[in-house]
Amino acid sequence: MALIQIAEPGQSTTAHQHRLAVGIDLGTTNSLVATVRSGEVDTLPDVDGSHLLPSVVHYGEGEVHVGSRAQQFSVSDPWNTIVSVKRFMGRGAEDISGKDEHYSYTFAETDSAVPRFKTRSGDVSAVEVSAEILKNLKQRAIKTLGDELSGAVITVPAYFDDAQRQATKDAAKLAGINVLRLLNEPTAAAVAYGLDTGNEGIIAVYDLGGGTFDISILRLNKGVFEVLATGGDSSLGGDDFDYVIAQWINEQADFSDADDPAFRRLVMQHARSAKEALAEHDSIAINIDAQNGAWQGTLDRSKLKDLLTPLVKKTLMSCRRALRDADVENEDIREVVMVGGSTRTLIVREMVAEFFQCEPLTSIDPDKVVATGAALQADVLVGNKPDDEMLLLDVIPLSLGIETMGGLVEKIIHRNTAIPVAKAQEFTTYKDGQTAMAVHVLQGERELVSDCRSLARFELRGFPPQVAGAARIRVTFQVDADGLLIVSAREENSGIEASVDVKPSYGLNDNEIESMLRDSIEHAEDDMHSRTLREQQVEADRVIEALDSAIASDGDQLLSEDERVQIDNARQVLVETKSGSDVDAIEQSIKQLEAASEVYVSRRKNTNIKTAMQGHSIDEYASEQSLDAKAAEAKVEE
Ligand code: ADP
Ligand code: MG
Questions:
Q1: What is the CA(351)–ligand 1 centre distance, in A?
Q2: I need a labelling partner for 297 at 20 to 30 A (CA). Which of 178, 343, 531, 605 fits?
Q3: pLDDT < 70 regions, the chain
Q4: Sign of dihedral through CA atoms 46, 49, 55, 60?
Q5: Are 212 and 233 in contact (CB under 8 A)?
Q6: CA distance linking residue 561 with residue 439, whole number of Å
Q7: How far is CA 608 from CA 467, 547, 612, 616, in A?
Q8: How remote is the CA of residue 115 from the centroid of ligand 2, in Å?
Q9: pLDDT in tens, 412-460
């Protein structure tokens, strides 16, 4: 989640000579390369005139095929033909086990943290497969332009985390490409349109590709793009359209061999061709004639609409959430940029137009718009365009906060806050005499520490003992332009400080982020209950603490045996109810304990006054009361 500068003033040196830089859209389904030539930006075709390179790699006998040549093998040799490799970038072996039943390759048994595909040419990682695609595009650029390549801007989904971004960089390195910068795909699309029209206002970028859906809400203002919110679904795209259509074909045809991987891919290919043709035609004939089965039928737009509506609705739910996160209404959106091949499907355009109540922008080819924006930025970054200066602000994907008593999380920076940002909040001590505080930094939307992700812990030690609630500890969260979080804590009365550096997105992939968000919505009610329960339990602990420390100091003098037994009984009831989950019962027990100790409390007050009159201050008395500092630390740090 780095701050992305479209142009760095220092890098925009006056270049005398044009340097070759390209933009690469490394897509799940298709990849493209684009460049700026004589002030014109365009994607580059291969020798056959095709701009889109299918992101497919085939490991053949002694040679590796990429693109449509590799695609030809996806039916005849599925095990050695890797498609949608982007879905595996930066993923650990544990992320893929058992999921995604519509892939038909095998993974090698390996100790390595990274999954490796078993192929005829040995086991290969997602990085190596992606590198093959990048090499192919690099060759295309060099052949077409007859020049050395200075560098490339490669695009990644906005949701990509550090590991996925790093994997993309590794693939580029393996392909011998100098990465000028990784750029978020929706941002690239915004750059492509923003530079063309110079429009200001809030825009939505709706990117429905083959394997992923991304929605981004951007604010475009005087050449500055600010990402207000991002959202989406990392496993929803045209592949799923194909899957739904293939299922329908299977039902219509009643194929008995529908599970055979090669046949399944064949049916998927027919589904996809039919879907794509329906962008132009009202209906299309499907003719499957294979050993495993034969079927002839027709798919028309209205049937397609029935099949795809639930999937498109799912994307609109993500849009609604992103709008909410950005704190804007549907009608605030001035423009909707359509990105990705799947936005060619009519029903997608219609439903998006209806949702945002405006006609989406499609003037730049939705396949090419990302590569186009990337090329424009690459051109700026190598210094071919001296004067551009655009800044893109990024957002925090999940809320950041610290642990408070009772295992609760207090959020300090909320998700989707634009970075850089700094926010501070004051906390206090829980116990008398406490001289240390443990700061536990967490990430996530849930209320309980156990449901959030732990990022770091540190301690603030050695501030002077004070009564509970008197210390003022200011905790500051600062997220810099590169997404690096620094958390610092300062006890204001003494000036004692401590801090820690954290990487907020460390180890989180997009699926995890998504599932954490989903969880927070699903568990909102439970969480509310847990929160009140914990708060009540903390309160019970506090009452017991205070009572115990009072009794330890003067219980013997001030209480009769009978009174003592009554208080002890009430205390015992509270100890029992507080370990349960009945919030009302805990509240009741607290009240009962307070009632039982009422006489004792007033007797203590009188004694206090007497003590004070004998030349002792109440303050002194309070500090006698305080627990020894060591014990307090131990409790709070556990
Ligand atoms: P990615 O960003 O995942 O690489 P693309 O933006 O290239 O994906 O989009 C690929 C998807 O677009 C595929 O699912 C493909 O079937 C779909 N697609 C391409 N052309 C059309 C079309 N004319 N109508 C509907 N879908 C299309
Ligand atoms: Mg794409």
A1: 17
A2: 343
A3: 1-17, 93-105, 109-113, 162, 194-199, 221-225, 385-395, 481-483, 503-514, 516-518, 520-521, 609-638
A4: negative
A5: yes
A6: 42
A7: 17, 16, 6, 9
A8: 23
A9: 998 877 777 888 888 888 888 888 888 999 888 888 888 888 888 888 9
